[in-house]
Amino acid sequence: MRPILFLPMSVIWLLLPGCGKKTATAPPQMPPAAVTFVPAESETVTITRDLPGRIDAVRVAEIRARVAGILLKREFVEGAEVEAGEVLFQIDPAPLEAARNSAAANLARAEAGAKQAENQVRRYRELVEVNAVSKQTADDSESAVTIADAEVRAATAALSTAELNLGYASVTAPISGRIGKAQVTEGALVGEGDATRLAIIQQLDPIFFDFTQSSTDLLALKKSGADQSKVKLLLEDGSEYEFPGKLLFSEAFVDETTGMVSLRAEFPNPKRDLLPGMFARARVVQAVQQNAITIPQRAVIRGAGGAGSILVIDDQNVAQSRTVQTGDLIGDKWVVTSGLKAGEKVIVEGGLKAKPGAPVVPAPFDPAKSAEAPAAPDKH
Predict the structure, then answer these.
(1) Structural domain tally of the chain?
(2) Closest CA to 76 of 213, 209, 171
(3) Whole-angstrom Cα distance, residue 212 to residue 259?
(4) Is 236:278 a contact under the CB 8 Å cutoff?
(5) Nearest alpha carbon to residue 327 among 367, 281, 287
(6) CATH code assigned at 275
(7) φ and ψ at 280, to 5 degrees?
(8) Which of 23, 144, 147, 336 is the most exposed place for a label (fewest CB within 10 A)?
(9) Does 4 map to a domain?
């Protein structure tokens, strides 16, 4: 057997602390989050609306055959610009020339008959004075003069019609604009029974943009004092059309069934970039709001139901959560309608690190630096 060792009590007490649990230490505290802020601004903002619609030509002319005949020639290039009065088509003029010549001959015959009747009535007037002819015969000769004059007028009208029809053999452009494709080809019989459509011309400069707006918004626009004459156009690809236009309020009327107002804007179109039928959006001024509170769009966090919240910095450099109501989006800024006062410091960057009720290290927001070096995503 091994001998039993007895340790002094003083040694036992020295060993006991080493056998107990270690004393717990407090976790290290996180340093205040570094954030950037902007003061809420009070400014005058212009509220705009983007309203969809379509491009429409100022004037559209359908070119039709006004006389019957065989189409001999097309004088224009399809899709080209044409001037008013320019010859577009040539219809065979031979039958029309023959009709004109026949009408001219009939007029000459009627004029000769009228002259003969006048000579006869002159002789009868002399003979009736010496009782060589009866009064009845003299009266009949005067009636013949009246009939002959009517025949001359009828023949003159027929000749004018024949000359007019002959002029229609050369089909000309009634307006200046861009002409589309020819609807018929050479050798076709046109104008037989109806006015055959040959082509369409559309005037493209200036050009119209037709769209609708609610009557309530239109009244608000007129009462706002905003510049109602200017309007911008956003094309289908999202780009802004380079030339501003103007609203034509004289073209407006209210649809009784929908309560919408039909509006028309006019835009210059020197490059012919805008074509009838194109879809676009008109950006019109809706109102001018004075003393509006604005903050950067990126400062607003959307919660359930679309509610907006922001973080503001109080006088003790402590982040505080704030619920706000936003209105219109002006560029990259929200218009705040309630929940914020002008001058309050709104956190723009670092909001994910800052906690409501926790201190922060604020610095003014610098858009240039933010654009050059975007903040890295937070890791949690």
Answers:
(1) 4
(2) 171
(3) 10
(4) yes
(5) 287
(6) 2.40.30.170
(7) -155, 180
(8) 23
(9) no
Cβ atoms 195, 64 nearer than 8 A: yes
According to DSSP, residue 24 is labeled P
Three-state DSSP class for residue 99 = helix
Residue 100 in any domain: the answer is yes
Please indicate, yes or no, whether residues 328 and 349 belong to a single structural domain of this protein.
yes
> What is the sign of the dihedral through the CA atoms of 281, 282, 283 and 287?
negative
In 3D space, the residue among 202, 218, 201, 203 whose CA is nearest the CA of residue 282 turns out to be 218
DSSP state of 66: -
Q: What's the domain range around 311?
A: 33-48+290-365
Write out 259-286 in H/E/C secondary structure. CEEEEEEEECCCCCCCCCCCEEEEEEEE
Please report which helix (H) or strand (E) contains residue 40, including its range.
none
Amino acid at 374: P
Same domain, 260 and 276: yes
Based on the fold, state whether residues 71 and 186 are members of the same structural domain. Answer: yes
- Tens place of pLDDT per residue across the chain (380 aa): 444 444 454 444 444 454 444 555 556 667 888 999 999 989 888 888 888 999 999 999 999 999 999 999 999 999 999 999 999 999 999 999 999 999 999 989 888 888 887 777 677 666 656 565 666 666 666 677 788 888 889 999 999 999 999 999 999 999 999 999 999 989 999 988 888 899 999 999 999 999 988 887 777 777 766 666 788 999 988 899 999 998 887 666 788 888 888 888 999 999 999 999 999 999 888 777 888 899 998 889 887 777 788 899 998 999 999 889 888 888 888 899 888 899 899 999 888 888 888 999 999 988 877 644 444 444 33
3-state secondary structure of 35: strand
Q: Considering Cα of 367, then 373, then 377, then 378, what sign does the dihedral take?
A: negative
Shared-domain flag, residues 252 and 323: no
Of 253, 268, 289, the one marking the end of a domain is 289
Q: Which two tokens stand for residue 249?
A: 């309020």
Q: Tell me whether residue 285 is in a domain.
A: yes
CA neighbours closer than 13 Å in the CB half-sphere of residue 179? 27
Contact 337, 345 (CB under 8 A): no
The set of residues, in sequence order, having a beta carbon less than 8 Å from that of 135 and lying 6+ positions away, is 128
**Quick one: CA torsion of 279, 284, 286, 287, rounded to 10 degrees?**
160
Q: Are residues 209 and 280 in the same domain?
A: yes
The pTM (predicted TM-score) of the whole model is 0.66
